[in-house]
Amino acid sequence: KVTIKGIERELICPACKELFTHPLILPCQHNVCHKCVKEILFAFEDSFADGGSESSNQSSPRIKISSSSMDRIDRISRTGIKRNSLTPRSSLFPCPGCQRDIDLGERGINGLFRNFTLETIVERYRQAARAAIAIMCDFCKPPPQESTKSCMDCSASYCNECFKIHHPWGTVKAQHEYVGPTTNFRPKILMCPEHEMERVNMYCEICRRPVCHLCKLGGCHANHRVTTMSTAYKTLKEKLSKDIEYLISKEGQVKAHITQLDLLLKEIECNSERAKEEASQSFEKLSHVLEEKKSAALRAIETSKNLRLEKLQMQVEEYQGLLENNGLVGYAQEVLKETDPSCFVQTAKQLHVRIQKATESLKTFRPAAETTFEDFVVDIAKQEEILGDLTFQSNGIKIPEINEEQSRMYDKALISWECPGKTDSADIYVLEYHKLNREEESTTWQEIEVCSKSKVISDLDVDSSYIFRVRGYKGSICSPWSREVILHTPPAPVFSFLFDDKCGYNSEHLLLNPGRTSVESRAGFPLLLGSERMQVGCYTTLDYIIADTGIAKGKHFWAFHVEAYSYLVKVGVVSSNKIQKLFHNTHDVTSPRYEQDSGHDSGSEDAFFDSSQPFTLVTLGMKKFFIPTTPAAPKDPASRILPLPSCLGICLDCDKGKVGFFDAGRMKCLYECEVDCSGIMYPAFALMGSAAIHLEESVTAKYGEYHDDI
């Protein structure tokens, strides 16, 4: 039996830090109060209007936008989504629980499900918290009696007598569902937020949410895999029960971990105090050295000052003696009064020398000491730089390096990095990035704090280049920035699809994985049987497979991997008008220089690409990419053969009628041609011999925090 008070932590809204009130399920599977979601959206709207200033984001006393969310405002505001004045204009905001950007779509809050299960648990918690306060009957005459049951259909509470009166035996009301006394009345049927009059009866495996039959028939879940609600209920309940049983069976291990963590908490407290004391002593020593240096410098300045003052004072006294009736001049005036020639000559000889020196000093006046103390300016530039880099004496933080092989750009950006050595020397990392724009002189770096060694970034512009760098932090210590890495986004929005296992699919020759994301062609007896006429020409059939979703307009991009052992693979697009012709094309000539009816070498390798073909495909195989023969293609056959990229991408522009083939790793176009887009265009693939194709997984599906594999 679960103790209600023991799960209080799970019942607190991450936004308002209070018990949930009408919780809504966000796309990231976190729960937030209905009122909190609206207040967050309005708070972001106010931030947009005021230029994203932090001082203007406190539109609600319950909701505070964290500083880590403010750097998203400029990027989110670029979407330009507008709504009517009665609802928040923005439908993008960071989840208070995981800080991932949440897009509510066109329906906004109305497209979110209300979590009635969580609401019921919160109500049970509230009842346990106020067990002494009884729920009174809603129909008793004063004074009301304590209720004994609540009717979920009437949304009211009753005592025994009133329940019998309002639910008489033999009437329709007698069939109403009743529970114990409660104030939480939820609807008996969960309705679809997209189609308000329809109840949900299916579960979308792609979006991981309940849907109705209209969502599957013509809504946004038309091409998604769905299962019945009962199957999803059974599967999820079995998995959840199994996981809970496993955790309960490990209760002893959990308690041991808790004990170990408690000891670590105490050890951290002791070690931190010791570290503080040692750091304080180090800075006191440094301060003592600085005080000694300061005292020595001040003493030197004081000594120089006294010496200069003494010299200047003596010079002042000498010049005062040159004044009339003063000093030397006064003495000379008295000597001139002497009338005895012999006595006058005896005294005037020495006096005249002194007068001459005084006269010379007047002509070449120079102060006896300098007034400036430029020689006593302390140069602390180097010391200041050293003190700025002052860190704790430890092994230091290794400079992280972005792993370009594990990092990739697709529907979102996945940035991964590593640190030299086996152990992680940093507690947290800061990832910075900005769009590469040659015209802008100054750039503003977007900053994200990450606790792991990878980060998924969304809302990047298509057909753009971004610069990424990362550094590690351990307390107040930080490492230098890593080497900057430039990654390129796809030339168009990513188009998601699965292989079609119905239209033209040859199950005898092709093998699909359960998720329909990989297809494999095995070279077996069918290929050998198709090669009976080897002596007169090799005629074997290419096995075609197309996507389960088509493209009617716009520009789209998708990527895939071709196994290195693949002998022959063709990839491209096919129009819905020519699909039947594609699958009924009985023979594909594996030797392009041979024509069945001519009986001789046709030289077709030198012929231009036939635009009348029912498809636009390029040939891959034996780790090579073959550029089709066109007027613009190089005449030298060897120059038309390129190394096969590890990941190949296709960009279809229906509006311009062009299809391009890309090295998806570098987002570099290898070949582009015109294509007829008059019908609905489908990604098409063909395999022969031993070959395999794997669709590129979306970053969201592969690296999302929530994953469900039912």
Describe the structure.
The chain is an alpha+beta fold. The chain is built from 14 helices and 35 strands. The strands form nine sheets. The chain has a seven-stranded antiparallel β-sheet, with no helix packed on it. The chain has a six-stranded antiparallel β-sheet with strand order 24-34-26-28-29-30. Strands 15, 16, 18, 19 and 20 form a five-stranded antiparallel β-sheet that branches. α9 packs antiparallel against α10. The longest helix is centred in the middle third of the chain and has 70 residues, at 251-320. It starts with 22 loop residues before the first strand and ends in a 7-residue tail after the last helix. Residues 51-62, 64-89, 533-539, 586-612 and 701-710 have low confidence and may be disordered.
Structural class of the helices, strands and pairings? alpha+beta
CATH architecture of the domain at 510-587 and 612-695: Sandwich
Q: Which CATH class of the domain at 510-587 and 612-695 is shown?
A: Mainly Beta
| Helical proportion, percent range | 25-40%
CATH superfamily of the domain at 510-587 and 612-695: SPRY domain
Average pLDDT for all residues:
78
Q: What is the count of helical runs?
A: 14
Profile the largest sheet: 7 strands, antiparallel
Family: Belongs to the TRIM/RBCC family.
Pfam families: ANCHR-like_BBOX, COS, zf-B_box, zf-RING_UBOX
Keywords: Coiled coil, Cytoplasm, Cytoskeleton, Ligase, Metal-binding, Microtubule, Repeat, Transferase, Ubl conjugation pathway, Zinc, Zinc-finger
Coiled coil: 258-285
